[in-house]
């Protein structure tokens, strides 16, 4: 199909606007959370506009080769101005937003002085709905543009269309997710469209996402747009403790464990009171029982190898504690401001007494990997990102091994209202949004991550406690175990060659060399049993997830 509008357009995921299955219940009273407007300082107020008017679309290229659609905000509150357009790939339901700004001083916002045409689809032979034009506003000196303007006309947009922001109210931004391009995302020289996010993100960082996109011909080009900044570090739009508890009750995920899972989570109290031990370097023969709250664990300091935790010594007790206790499982919440306190991250932590051994898939054969992957003490987490403008769930981050993945709310499965469904992988406890097999490797050889629904599951909202929320001050008292900053399990190193050789004996000749190559590509730490550190030493405790 060449330039122009197709006669018959196939239905795409983006043609269906996403809505959460149930409305958010009324929340307890608070200060500024969920009030629709956030004051960023110096007279600049912003609101999050979710009502979007379609401007132009292409139906090929980008993720899954389904194209992308470009929108501008509509139904903005009186006195608010557009800061830029929104775009997303067509391979998921329409679910997005863009900020609009209001200037209470007459100095925070100003019209651009001109526009530059960044790109046009006019001459391209692609599936598109008419021709699209992407314009970059030219700001007045001392101001910065925050987003592009999209039109279906070669004529420049009106200078009244968009506003630029005073430079001191902005922060640096970087490309985030790939929205569209004619080639592949990895093509550094093709024309691509990316969403934007603040370059510096964390609990103390005040950069604010605007919801706009950047369009450029090379991924290495400097970004000509900025994001906003909460210059007064105003946290009044963060939820209160009562509001957090109500929000988590509404959105708490349901976590399914594999039918064959033996190593289930527990509460830390259950782990401590069922025989877990504290060891000290050079005094290994005298391990100490742990108090139910962890009150006798070393506090603060650093992960210097002086202390570690381990399972009970007696074999029967050790095997019983390894398996955890789903009925006693507790979810531990860390509440933190993100993206200049325009969002709240509710980080839900799960503790597993034991992480089971890994299995490999070698073509059609599944082989056990001995003790590979197993360790004492396993912390996993899921992060719910909540809009401070309206209390809506925007997405989930699911931890998997040393990393994880962000999922937009429109990409999730829900049960019982707004409870997202999460799948925990067999033995390894990595979190995924869909059941099935995720292979950690290349081709048809890798470590298996198997997930499935079963009668083993938890509703994270049934048993949870808020263990940390620094911005709330004394409202939340951290339990002693949270400030234990050493290992939650011992260090044991296995013989890499011996483990691999045991597996290779089970394989046909032609697969031995392929498996050997795969094993050598694995990080060395996977062949050691090393108990992890607790939540406070993870990089996401004060930073963003990625």
List keywords for this structure.
6-stranded mixed beta sheet; 39 strands; single chain; 5-stranded mixed beta sheet; Vps62; 2 domains
Spans of at least 5 consecutive residues whose pLDDT stays below 50 are 1-8
Number of domains: 2
Class by alpha and beta content: mainly beta
Cα-atom Rg, whole angstroms? 26 Å
- Largest sheet data: 6 strands, mixed
Helix fraction bin: under 10%
Strand content: 35-45%
Strand order of the largest sheet: 30-29-28-25-24-37
**Basic shape:** globular
CA(first)-CA(last) distance: 38 Å
Please tell me the overall pLDDT: 92
Q: In DSSP terms, counting alpha (H) and pi (I) runs of 4 or more, how many helices?
A: 5
| Total beta-strand segments | 39
Gist of the model:
Pfam families: Vps62. With about 550 residues, the protein is mainly beta.
Write the layout of secondary structure elements.
Layout: E1 37-41, E2 44-49, E3 52-58, E4 68-73, E5 81-82, E6 86-89, E7 98-103, E8 109-110, E9 114-120, E10 133-138, E11 143-144, E12 149-151, E13 164-166, E14 170-171, E15 173-181, E16 192-198, E17 207-208, E18 213-216, E19 227-229, H1 241-251, E20 254-257, H2 268-273, E21 277-280, E22 288-289, E23 307-310, H3 315-322, E24 331-338, E25 343-355, E26 359-362, E27 365-368, E28 375-387, E29 393-400, E30 403-408, E31 414-415, E32 419-424, E33 431-432, E34 436-442, E35 445-451, E36 457-459, E37 464-468, E38 491-493, H4 496-504, H5 509-521, E39 528-530
Parallel strand pairs: 20-32, 24-37
Antiparallel strand pairs: 1-2, 2-7, 3-4, 4-6, 5-7, 8-13, 9-10, 10-12, 11-13, 14-19, 15-16, 16-18, 17-19, 20-36, 21-22, 21-23, 24-25, 25-28, 26-27, 26-35, 28-29, 29-30, 31-32, 32-33, 34-35, 38-39
